[in-house]
Each structure stands twice: as structure tokens, then as C-alpha cells.
């Protein structure tokens, strides 16, 4: 067994420290602590040896959380506070948490995994009663570790990766496919795509819906018409301008979120083209742009409310239950034109 090389800042070993030293998952360590008979005896013995060597003590406060007996605080971890979607999400979360005597503490990660990891670890150390997170990346080991330590975790907008957790999603694939199909029905065959970073679940699913709609129409998704990674409206405007400057520019653009839609609108206005526009996420003044615009809309407040309900139930019933729950919020198409809007 390796010698203990932890420094002063690691004076209180975590469950993850035990997992790494014993070369098992954090969930396996948690099962050993619960005397789970399904853990192989040799593995359990190795984990207990490491626990003794490191002097690990499990967080009984976090492990026994119940409504009314914790700190009364819930961590809400989001990726971009500049996006109005997150303010609506937070309002929905707070409206439910308030009914249970809980309040949220919001942390912004800027879509940065290291920032998210540090924020989640800090929330766990501060004994929050639970965490609602919109993960920045598919690497969610820090969230898995928090859940394994007894902190209830609910994911919003993106599903859990390699660990079990409740989540509430949007019909990303179906909404993107429907919007692209509407553009195709209007006669467009060169349709561009503007999206978030390609590692983000929502961007992956919305690109998939867009590509499948094109494929069903006998059109391949053309890489030259796809731009991903834009998180701010300025970046989106530049990406849209690149597409509009192509020798054969797209006659329509589908945008995977509201920041990209707004940026694309600005690029279209500057270029003076008649490029059709469709996007995911409704936003304020979408009906006042003076440009035909198809929006994939959904109730972002309900997304937050459902996340709040899932977390409140998880805290009330205990962080460890046999089944996790997944809820999908439906989408609708809204068309904004010069004479108002219509929903389909």
C-alpha cells in the first residue's frame, strides 16, 4: 500500500480520497460503509483498510439530511447567468423550494468544468441540503461523489453520466427536428446550424434532431454549414456572418439556443439578407424583431419547478432510493411574424 502523501490541505480525507486509494468507485465505498452484501468481500476488506489508513470519517450530517433538519440551503449550479433561461429556471426552482422552507444559493460556472468541480465541492463542504445542477460537461465525477456522500443531487437540462440521479430534461431532439422540418416544408434545402459547445448534451441532441430531419428529406448535414461552440451573442453573430458569406450561403439558419438566435438575427440584419431563422428557447421581444422567426418553446419555469420537486422529494425520502426519476418537458413551435405569433 502506498504511503500517505497528503498535505495540510488534505487533513480531512474525503470519500473520493478513499475511492482513489482503494482503486474503486465512490459508490463502492458508499456501499461498503452501508455494509452492502453485494460488494465482494475482498473489495470490502481493501476499502476498510484504506478507510483506517486515511482516518476517513463519513459525513453523517449530509448522510442523514431531511427537510427541516439541515442548513435549509440548496445549491443551484448553472453554466451561464447571462442567459435569461437560467433566471427562469431559478425562479421555478425557488417557487417550489420555498414551499419546503428551503432557499437556493446560485453559483455560475461559465461552462468551465474546473469551476463547476470546485463549486460543487464547496457546496458539499458547506453542508447544503441538496444540489440542482446544469452540468457543464459529460465528466460528472464530482457530482457522483457528492451523491455518494449522501447529498441529494438533481440534474436539470442534462442527464447524469455514469451515476444514478434524478433529472428533468427538455425534448431537445424532438423540438430541433420539428423546427428543421418546418424550414424544409417552407422550401429551404441549405439550412445552417449554430450551436453550443459540441460536448454539451443539449447541443448534441439538437444537432441530432436537425441532422435527422435533413436526412429524412434526402439532404445530408453539410459540415460547412455547421458552427458550434458559441456561448455569447457576439460569438454567434460572427459565426452566422461566416455562414452568410459562403459562396452558397444557407437560405435558413437553425440555432440551438436563444443566444445563438439573437446573434444570428443581428448578422442577418447587418447582411440585409432574407435568410429564414429558427431557434431553440423563446426570449423576450422575439415577437418584435420584425423578422419571420420560428421558435422551439417550452416552459423553463416548469423545468425549474420539476427539478425543485424532484429534489424536495429526494431530501424528504432520503438520498438513497431504489429508483431514480427522469422527467421530460415537452416543446411547441411558435412562429413569430409581422402579424403576431401562432403556436403549433
Rg: 23 Å
What is the mean predicted local confidence, pLDDT?
87
At the third CATH level, what is the topology name of the largest domain? Rossmann fold
Q: Could you give me the name of the CATH homologous superfamily of the largest domain?
A: Response regulator
* Strand order, sheet with most strands: 7-6-8-9-10-12-13
**Any low-confidence stretches, pLDDT <50, length ≥5?**
1-10, 60-68
How many strands appear in the DSSP assignment? Answer: 13
Taken in chain order, the helices and strands follow as HHHHEHEHEHEEHEHEHEHEEHEEE
GO molecular function, one term: DNA binding
Keywords: DNA-binding, Transcription, Transcription regulation
Pfam families: LacI, Peripla_BP_1
Domain HTH lacI-type: 13-67
Blueprint of the fold:
Elements: H1 15-22, H2 26-33, H3 41-54, H4 60-63, E1 73-78, H5 84-97, E2 103-108, H6 113-125, E3 130-133, H7 141-148, E4 153-156, E5 166-170, H8 172-185, E6 191-195, H9 201-216, E7 226-228, H10 233-244, E8 252-255, H11 258-271, E9 276-280, E10 293-297, H12 300-317, E11 326-329, E12 332-337, E13 340-343
Parallel strand pairs: 1-2, 1-3, 3-4, 4-5, 5-11, 6-7, 6-8, 8-9, 9-10
Antiparallel strand pairs: 10-12, 12-13
Helix pairs in contact: 1-2, 1-3, 5-12, 8-9, 10-11
Protein name: LacI family DNA-binding transcriptional regulator
Keywords: DNA-binding, Transcription, Transcription regulation
InterPro entries: HTH_LacI, Lambda_DNA-bd_dom_sf, Peripla_BP/Lac1_sug-bd_dom, Peripla_BP_I
Verbal overview:
By secondary structure, this protein is of the alpha/beta class. The chain has 3 domains: 8-58, Orthogonal Bundle (434 Repressor (Amino-terminal Domain)), CATH 1.10.260; 69-169 and 300-328, Response regulator (Rossmann fold), CATH 3.40.50.2300; 172-297, Response regulator (Rossmann fold, 3-Layer(aba) Sandwich), CATH 3.40.50. Helices cover 42% and strands 18% of the residues. Strands 7-6-8-9-10-12-13 form a 7-stranded mixed β-sheet, with helices on both faces. Helix 1 (15-22) crosses helix 2 (26-33) and helix 1 (15-22) crosses helix 3. The chain is elongated. The N and C termini lie far apart (64 Å). Residues 13-67 form the HTH lacI-type domain. It comes from Streptomyces lannensis. Keywords: DNA-binding, Transcription, Transcription regulation.
Amino acid at each position: 500500500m502506498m504511503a500517505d502523501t497528503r498535505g495540510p490541505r488534505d487533513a480531512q480525507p474525503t470519500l473520493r480520497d478513499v475511492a482513489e486509494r482503494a482503486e474503486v468507485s465512490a459508490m463502492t465505498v458508499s456501499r461498503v460503509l452501508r455494509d452492502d452484501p453485494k460488494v465482494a468481500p475482498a473489495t470490502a476488506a481493501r476499502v476498510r483498510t484504506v478507510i483506517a489508513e486515511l482516518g476517513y470519517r463519513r459525513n453523517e450530517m449530509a448522510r442523514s439530511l431531511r427537510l427541516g433538519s439541515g442548513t435549509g440551503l440548496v445549491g443551484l449550479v448553472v453554466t451561464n447567468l447571462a442567459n435569461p433561461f437560467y433566471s427562469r429556471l431559478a425562479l421555478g426552482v425557488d417557487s417550489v423550494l420555498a414551499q419546503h422552507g428551503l432557499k437556493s444559493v446560485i453559483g455560475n460556472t461559465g461552462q468551465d468544468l474546473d469551476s463547476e468541480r470546485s463549486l460543487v465541492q464547496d457546496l458539499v463542504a458547506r453542508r447544503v441540503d441538496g444540489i440542482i445542477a446544469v452540468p457543464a460537461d459529460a465528466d460528472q465525477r464530482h457530482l457522483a461523489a457528492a451523491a455518494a456522500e449522501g447529498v441529494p443531487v438533481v440534474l436539470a437540462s442534462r442527464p447524469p453520466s455514469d451515476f444514478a440521479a434524478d433529472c428533468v430534461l427538455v425534448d431537445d431532439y424532438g423540438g430541433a427536428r420539428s423546427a428543421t422540418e418546418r424550414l424544409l416544408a417552407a422550401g429551404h434545402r441549405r439550412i445552417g446550424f449554430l450551436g453550443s459547445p459540441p460536448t454539451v448534451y443539449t447541443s448534441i441532441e439538437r444537432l441530432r434532431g436537425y441532422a435527422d430531419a435533413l436526412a429524412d428529406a434526402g439532404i445530408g448535414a453539410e459540415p460547412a454549414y455547421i458552427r458550434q461552440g458559441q456561448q455569447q451573442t457576439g460569438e454567434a453573430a460572427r459565426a452566422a456572418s461566416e455562414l452568410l458569406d459562403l459562396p452558397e450561403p444557407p437560405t435558413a439558419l437553425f440555432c440551438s439556443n436563444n443566444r445563438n438566435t439573437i446573434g444570428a438575427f443581428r448578422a442577418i440584419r447587418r447582411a440585409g439578407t432574407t435568410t429564414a431563422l429558427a431557434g431553440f428557447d423563446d426570449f423576450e421581444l422575439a415577437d418584435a424583431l420584425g423578422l419571420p422567426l420560428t421558435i422551439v418553446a417550452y416552459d423553463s419555469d416548469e423545468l425549474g419547478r420539476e427539478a425543485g420537486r424532484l429534489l424536495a422529494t429526494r431530501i424528504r425520502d432520503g438520498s438513497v432510493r431504489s429508483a431514480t426519476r427522469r422527467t421530460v418537458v415537452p416543446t411547441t413551435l411558435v412562429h413569430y411574424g409581422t402579424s403576431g405569433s401562432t403556436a403549433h
